[in-house]
Amino acid sequence: MPDIIVPNMQQELNLKKLELTALLEITRAINDNLPEAALYKIYRFTLLAQLHISRLSLFVNDEGWDCKASYGTDQDFSKQQLPDSIKNITEITYTSELSVGKKWLAFEIVIPILHNGKVLAFVMIGKMQPHYHNTDALDFVQTVSNIMLVAIENHKMARQRLAQESIRREIEIAREVQAMLFPKSLPNDSDVAIHASYIPHSSIGGDYYDFVEIDADQFLFCVADVSGKGVPASLLMSNFQAGLRTILRQTSDLKTVVTELNYLIYRNAIAEKFITTFIAVYNRKTRELTYVNAGHNAPILLHGNHVHELLHDGCTMLGVFDELPFLSVIKVSIPHNSVLLCYTDGLTEVFDANEAEFGIEGTIKFMQRNRFLSSRMLHLQLLHEINLYNEEASFNDDITLLSCRFK
After folding, report:
1. 195 bridge partner residues
2. Choosing a second label site near 203 at 20 to 30 A (CA), which of 7, 107, 179, 391?
3. What is the pLDDT of residues 300-335, one digit of tens each?
């Protein structure tokens, strides 16, 4: 602790007036909600003009020690690393008592600024009036600095809360937009029953499914998955849906639909994003399913005799190339009492305690055991089966299921 110099009564009275003026200046600046840089400027001016502190550097612990204010020295302390011997100080200390380089001896006293037991900053002062070597004066510098730094910290936290609220609102809007992408109803009639389930991994997912009536005999359905998650994935998927529905107004030819969608995604995708999708058109009269699998997980077509086939032909994922290097449009005949399960990779990429993947084999076996369940129960039981596969596992990705039961 520095030696104490006792001021006379007049000096003490003058000091109190200066301290009161300094406190009012700092408080007024805080109440005016000025930006951080302006507060530091007023702080620097107040200590110089009101308290006659001719040399000062203020180092603040802001994800590392940064010099936020400095004046009265030949050195540029904004580029200096704070010595470890200063970082360990918890009470007002003379620099002559510390192991520091010569340049730091330009300051006479180091004043730590603490809040809730944590050191927020160090104020280093030099070339002071003699009466500033008394305890009250140094304590006052400590108090003023503490008031200002805590106010800055509170303002920073308030800005962070506002930013987080803004992000939360943006996510909420994106989630609402995403929910609007999904069809409001799916058919369950004498020809077919379609059911879908969607479980996002986070508040905004990158999965999508759709159903569009083309005419009285034909309808289109699809399942898609955008690389990545969050708002960018949601925006790209909304772009995909809008493009799909616009193209379908012109044609239902899958070769044209997929080619145009690929160009749309290639042109609009950012940060190397792409989309995998299974897209199909079913004709109720001919019982033909025409499909393209664009790099997506192969849907499982389970026949009435438990024989299955995987629908994996088509093209590469969409949005990688401006022109698809190859494209096959496949037609398959659908027997009566068949079930088609479309899904995203969040379903199969679940691992047990031995790191064995549930995979497509586990999904096929489940379908063979439970094919006669209602569509809703089929989805619920399949999701339950995944949870049982590893009770401690959590889903690492979105999961979308779309089953089509052909009657």
Report:
1. 403
2. 391
3. 999 988 899 999 999 999 999 999 999 999 999 999
Distance, in Å, from the CA atom of 126 to the CA atom of 147, rounded to the nearest integer, reads 21
Tell me the pLDDT band of 69, cut-offs 50, 70 and 90.
confident
- Is 339's pLDDT higher than 60? yes
| Chain position carrying tokens 């005419």 | 215
- End-to-end CA distance of the chain: give it in Å, rounded: 90
Nearest to 324 by CA among 274, 252, 272, 281: 274
H or E segment and range at residue 376: helix 375-389
Is residue 133 classed as helix, strand or coil in its secondary structure? helix
Q: Which residues contact 297 (CB under 8 A, 6 or more apart)?
A: 276, 278, 343, 344, 345, 347, 348, 360
Nearest-angstrom CA–CA distance, 140 and 145: 8
Q: Give the number of other CB atoms < 10 A from CB of residue 206.
A: 27
Q: State the pLDDT at residue 6.
A: 47
Whether the Cβ atoms of residue 378 and residue 370 lie closer than 8 Å to each other: yes
Cα distance between residue 18 and residue 36, in whole Å:
24
